[in-house]
Amino acid sequence: MSQLFTAANLSFIFQGLGLTLYISFISIILSTIFGTLLAIMRNGKNKFVKLLASFYIEFVRNVPNLLWIFIIFLVFQVKATPAGITAFTVFTSAALAEIIRGGLNGVDNGQTEAGLAQGLRPSQVFLLIVFPQAYRKMLPAIISQFVTVIKDTSLLYSVIAIQELFGKSQILMGNYFQANQVFALYALITLIYFIINFTISSLSRRLAKKWAQAN
What we know:
This protein has helices spanning 7-43, 47-61, 65-75, 80-105, 109-117, 122-152, 155-160, 165-173, 179-214. The chain is mainly alpha-helical. The relative contact order is 0.14.
């Protein structure tokens, strides 16, 4: 067992963890930006823009993320890591768009009317009043989506050979064949995923509880 958990092997695994977090973080940031734009488009009054956003959201959400990874990597010939980020951004932005749209629709219309009554322009009302309140309600759900992205990065090694956390463990597995070594390695990877995702989920629940009490 000591041969498995050497400094070199642990460093190798944590390099994969760094790539997992990098892909997840960039994807969730881009997805939040694009998801917000899609939500605004779907809530807008322009029928063509609304239809376009609706089609994108429904189409992307109903196609497996695994297929988007294949399409972006093989069809569009994007390099592995950018392909992974792009695929997760495409897929997650559609999921976040519905979360964000729900948050925007959840802000009381009286807030908008009050802002307009104060002489603010509609754009100012949205940016200064509606948007901050909506994001406060949505942030726990957005954080929870981050957990989904982190877990789903494990698809990347088997599809496009990105050596993220799970991929690094699979590479190490080729050098260790004993049952106790395989079990120990999978146990370590499971523990790492659990600690990261449980921490993020706990933060999400804490924020939701705190803001519910504030209201």
